[in-house]
Structures are given as structure tokens and as C-alpha cells.
Amino acid sequence: SSHEHKLNFKKSKEACLNYIQDAMLQKQWKRAAEFLTFYVESLEKDYSREPIGPSEMIWRIGSEILCHHSHSSMKEFNCFMEQMKTLGVKRYLKVCLEHVFHLLCNGQIDEAYQSLSLAESWRFGEQTAVQDKEMKLIQAYRGLLDYYSWSKQKNILLEHGVDGCADLSVEQEMHSCFRKAAVNLKEIIKIPGVWDLFVKCYVDLLEFYGDHNEACQVLNEYAYNSKFPANPNAHVYLYQFLKRQGESKKSLISALKILHDIVPSHELMIDFNTMLQKSKKRKKRRLGLEVIFAALDYAGWKENVKAWSCLARQLKQIVISEKHLDWIKQEWNSRKDWWPAFHFSRYLAKRNWQENQSLSYEKALVAGILLGKDCKYFKYVSHQGCKAQVKRFRMLKKFVNKHNPVYLRISG
């Protein structure tokens, strides 16, 4: 019966897709390609009147297989993508974008640019308005390739140097690329979203031509506009720009403060801590201690010598002056239950000593101040250092023994 035929067809179609998925998960690309061929052939024999929309599935699966198949070539991939573009106008621009990405990954810059230009001129009734966002992406990536061409021309002028007519020709080409890139890049970054690469390229263009006010405005908008998603990189780019422009430390600290709130483990927290420690304001020095403690809460910082050096230096200053011991106590109270095992075990003491004596020295100083002279980490490292007759380890042991009462006050 017709009903039974439809039911059997549906089951065989689902089974075929399961086989394809299984083959892809096991990276059996030849087997996956064979099953995909069967799947496509079965669709061609389907005489049911039920609407079937398999084109996106074929596109996604097929492009994945062709990317990994050992006998696949760029010619075959290009042919496949051109066929996919004609299967459904609703996803025409998406297919174009994926095709462009593949061309770029294979170093075919000119072909990618040509593909983007063709896609930009595409029109299909109401679909043009529906796919407005995809069209903006097409234009943005074309702007990115214009930026790439501009950068190449700029390097020719700056590094190699050419004379006379050739020099004028390169400069004109460079300015032409600048204008085309700037227009498209400026448009895409107005739309709320994460546009890191596009923003960096646009700011680079503006900076090169001395439009620092516009560059600053773009970066501030990208970092602080509430319509845009929270993005740590936006604050990194703003900080780096302000630093290049020689802006005040107040501006730099302001940019990094927000970055700290979003990503307390960011690598720029070393810079942030250093600036805060140099401040004459007590509030900022207090924040500096909070920043470096917070960074060392993360496993990625466990063996960062600079971070431990920053913490050790500030703790030592506080201990010697005996001022603001309450700062240390406040930070330590929330960590004293887990930092000893996380940072100051005897196992870590042995490993750190063997791999990096500078790291073990800084950590031993911190451990001695926070956990006292009987701390396992401090005892092992100071013993090894004195045994090796390294002067600074003898001084370290003497310092911690002298200021052991501070540990008692911190531990409460």
C-alpha cells in the first residue's frame, strides 16, 4: 500500500542517516560518502507527496565528507558547493560563505574574493530582504579581503620601497583598497555582535591614516555599548589602543578594571596589578592585592613566576610595614581551606624545586607568610635552598622565621 511504502521509505532513510553519522564519527569518510550517495539516490526515487527538505542536510554532511576524504580535491569541492547553491535559495548566501571559508583555508584568496563579489550581486525577490544579515556578512568578509590587499600594498611601500610611477601605482591601489575595506568593515561593526577581527582591521586602517578619534570612538562603542554582548577582547583592544596612544594610567586602569570583572584570570592582570601597586592611592593598592590573589585562583596561573613574584613582593611590603595586614587576612580567609592543597603541597614543592627554582622561591615566600614557618612547602624549599647554599634561600628562611608572628595574626 501507499502508506506502507511511505513508512518503509522513512525507516530506510533514517537508517541510512544513522549509518552516515556512525561512519563520520569513526572518521570512515569513504564509507560515509557511499552511504550519502545511497541516501541521495533514495530521495530521487521518493514519490511521496510529503514535503522533504534534505538539501541542507546533504550540504552539511557532503561538505564535511569532502573536507576530510583522502581522494577529495578542490575541484570536486567547488563543484559540490556550486550544486548546493542551486538547491535552495533560502540558504544560498550561507553556502557561499562556507565555500569562501574553504577557499581561504586553502590559500585561494582571489577565488574567495570573486565568490564574495558574485554573492554580493545576488538577488532573489523577497529572499534578498530576508537574508539581509547574511548579505552584510558577505560584504564584511569582502571588506576583510580588501583589508588584506591594503596590508600587502602597505608592506610593499614600507618595507621594500619602490620608486617613481611604480610607487604611485602601489599607493593608489592601497588607497583604493582602504576605501572599499573601510566602508564594509564600518557597516558590520554597527550591528550588535562579536566582530573582533573586523574591529581590529578597521582600527588598524584608521590608525594608519591618523584618525585616532574615530578609532577610539569605535573601540569605546564596541566595549561599552550595552547592546553588544559582553566581550573581554573588546576591553583588551581598547586597553592596547590607549597604551599605544600614551593615554593616562587612569584610562588604562579603567579599561583593565572591567576586564578584571569579566575575566579575572586574563594574562593582562599582571600589567593591571603592576599599575595598581605603583599607585599612591591606598584603594588602588588594595585592589592590586585582590587582583593577583584572584588570578592565582586559576590552575593556568599555578606556575606563573611573574604572578607569584607580584604577590610575594606585595605581601613582603605589607609584612615589613605591618600596615594593612587586614588586607591579607580578608583575601586569605576565603582561600585558606583550599589553597594549601592547591598550591602548597609537599608534592608541588618537590616538583617546583626540580623544574624552576625561581618559582619555588616566590611561592615559598608566599607560603611562609600565609601558612607560617611550619608549612610543608616552605620547609621543603627552604631546606633544599639552604642545602644548595643559595644565599637568597637562607635570607628567605630568616625573613619568614622573623615574621612568623604575622602568620599568627593573619590566621586569627
TrEMBL record:
It comes from Cephalopterus ornatus. GO terms for cellular component: RNA polymerase I transcription regulator complex. InterPro entries: SL1/TIF-IB_Component (IPR052669), TAF1A (IPR039495). This is TAF1A polymerase. It holds the Pfam family TAF1_subA. GO terms for biological process: transcription by RNA polymerase I. It comes from the Eukaryota.
